[in-house]
Amino acid sequence: MGAIAGTLIVGSGIALDAAPAAEAAQHLWRWCYRCSGLWFSGNGTAGGCPAGGGHDGSRSGDYDLKFDTDGGQGQAGWVWCGFCQGLWFGATFGFGACPARSDGHSIGRIDTRPPQFSGNYLLEYVGFTDGPGGQPQWRQCGKCYGLFFDGNTPGASGVCPQDHGRHSTAGTKNYVLREL
Predict the structure, then answer these.
(1) Can you give the three-state secondary structure of the chain, one letter per residue?
(2) Are strands 38-40 and 63-67 parallel, antiparallel or unpaired?
(3) How far apart are CA 23 and CA 68, in angstroms?
(4) Which tens digit of pLDDT belongs to each residue from 115-146?
(5) Residue 10: CA atoms inside 13 Å, Cβ hemisphere, count?
(6) Looking at the DSSP assignment, which residues form a beta bridge with residue 86?
(7) Alpha carbon distance 26, 64 (integer Å)
(8) Burial classification of residue 8, based on how many CB atoms lie within 10 Å of its CB (0-12 exposed, 13-18 middle, 19 or more buried)
(9) CA 76 to CA 53: how far, in whole Å?
(10) How many C-beta atoms surround the C-beta of residue 73 within 10 A?
(11) What is the pTM (predicted TM-score) of this model?
(12) What is d(CA 87, CA 29) in angstroms, rounded to the nearest whole number?
């Protein structure tokens, strides 16, 4: 049997404070090919798609979103809607348009309506990323406040739950998402 090399310090009197662990980034976010929105697929439900029925992630990769507590570059204020399962910008005045509920998206912890369990997400955007790579051309819709992919056929920017027309790209940042 070989000896194990190492040092064991017993009773050193040094107290080490354990730093709280950073929240791990969350995966299982998918692109819906019918509405072009981003939705969370990890709850066993397809949520509500503005194109009708539930979201369809069959043509999507697995996207990884970081929480605002993880730090880094980007824009905080993004939250998950427990009704439609979509990601939307909750740092707005109003609840946007939710395809699964007539009075708008759920906003998580500061919303008095259930469900109240959304994390707050931090999205990188072109010019403010933590490094190279990622998929650009994700936008915030100015009508429903949801995040959608605008990198497919020009002019085909999904279906907005506000008016069932196309998502609005006016004045929005070019967000970058990362796939696993």
Answers:
(1) CCCCCCCCCCCCCCCCCCCCCCCCCEEEEEECCCCCEEEECCCCCCCCCCCCCCCCCCCCCCEEEEEHHHCCCCEEEEEECCCCCEEEECCCCCCCCECCECCCCCCHHHCCCCCCCCCEEEEEECCECCCCCCEEEEEECCCCCEEEECCCCCCCCCCCCCCCCCCCCCCCCCEEEEEC
(2) unpaired
(3) 9
(4) 456 788 999 999 999 999 999 999 999 889 99
(5) 0
(6) 39
(7) 5
(8) exposed
(9) 30
(10) 14
(11) 0.80
(12) 9
Structure tokens at 53: 């029925």
Q: Which two tokens stand for residue 143?
A: 């009508």
* Cα 168 from Cα 96, distance rounded (Å): 13
